[in-house]
Every structure is written in structure tokens, then in C-alpha cells.
Amino acid sequence: MSSDFESYEQDFAVLTAEITGRIGKVPKLLGDEKKQMVANVEKQLEEARELLEQMELEVREIPPQSRGMYSSRMRSYKQEMGKLEADFKRSRIAYSDEVRNELLGDDGNSSENQRAHLLDNTERLERSSRRLEAGYQIAVETEQIGQEMLENLSHDREKIQRARERV
After folding, report:
1. Cβ–Cβ under 8 Å, residues 26 and 41
2. pLDDT along the chain (167 residues), means of 10
3. Where would I find the Vesicle transport v-SNARE N-terminal domain in this sequence (predicted)?
């Protein structure tokens, strides 16, 4: 079971390395090359999200006593994914600003404050989203632990009842 997780990890590492390289190239490209690179990065980000989902499913199937290590790995992969998406958004914002400037003939100085304000708001929203996601993850883990405790208590109750019947 963990071998599937490890193969997903390797695929995720290769994919994120490719995405990082392509994100770095986006601002340097022009025209159709840039559009194609943006589309490729979007496709690869979707693949990475799907890999994360598969990894999460594998973690759920791992026995509870060894699940902690894999859960912490998943948190770091999700953080890495969030950083990649933020970097991609920044490169796309720069890309969309360039397109807008080309169309409007604007030099971009007049909207610099608005852009900075939007970037700040975007970062704030991303931080809030990450906090909400972390809270949700804690709630899910707490629910799983509670479920395991209830199962253990149920088994203990059955043992006690059987022992009482024997006596």
C-alpha cells in the first residue's frame, strides 16, 4: 500500500519540478508561446491535484498507527501545491497585465497601486483558505480518531458482556 503512495510521491516530485521550471519561463515568453505555456502549466497543475487526491486516498487506507507520518507528508505536499499555484497566479497576473498593456497602450504605472492591493488581497485570501483547509483537516482527523475510539469501546463492551455471561 505504501509502495503506491511512494510511486505517487515520485510522480508528484517530477511533476512539481516541471511545473516550477515552466512557471519560471512564462514571463520570458511572448505571444502564442506564452499562451501555450500557460495552458500546459494549467494542465500539469490539474494533474498534480489529481495525484494529491490519489495520495490522500492511499493515506486513508494505511493503518492508523502508521498514518501520522504519511499525513504530515501530505500536509507538506499540499503546502507545496499551494505555493506552486500562487507562483503561477503571479506569473499569470504579470502575463495578463502585459496583454492589457499591449491592448490599451498603457505603461502600467497608473495601476501599480491597484495591482499591489490586489496581490495583497489575493495573498490574504490564500492564507485564509489554507487556514480553513488546515482546520478542516484537523476536524477530519479528529472525527477519525473518535470513530476509532468508539469502535474500541464497542469491542471492549462486547468483551465485558461475554465475560459477565461466562461468570
Report:
1. yes
2. 78 89 80 83 90 88 81 88 87 61 55 78 85 88 92 95 93
3. 1-91
Secondary structure tally for the chain: helices H, strands E? 4, 0
Residue 111: other Cβ atoms inside 10 A:
16
Residues 6+ apart with CB under 8 A from 22: 37, 40, 41, 44
pTM of the complete model: 0.53
Q: Taking the alpha carbons of 155, 157, 163, 166 in that order, is the dihedral positive or negative?
A: negative
**The three three-digit cell numbers of residue 69, written as one number:** 507520518
φ, ψ of residue 85 in degrees (nearest 5): -65, -40
Other Cβ atoms closer than 10 A to 149: 10
Whether domain 1-104 has CATH 1.20.58.400: the reply is: yes
The sign one gets for the Cα dihedral 40, 42, 48, 51 is negative
| Amino acid of residue 9 | E
Contact 38, 90 (CB under 8 A): no
Compute the distance between CA of residue 56 and CA of residue 59 in angstroms, rounded to an integer.
5
Q: Tally Cβ neighbours within 10 Å of residue 28.
A: 10
Cell numbers for 118, please give them: 490586489
The grid coordinates listed for 105 are: 497602450
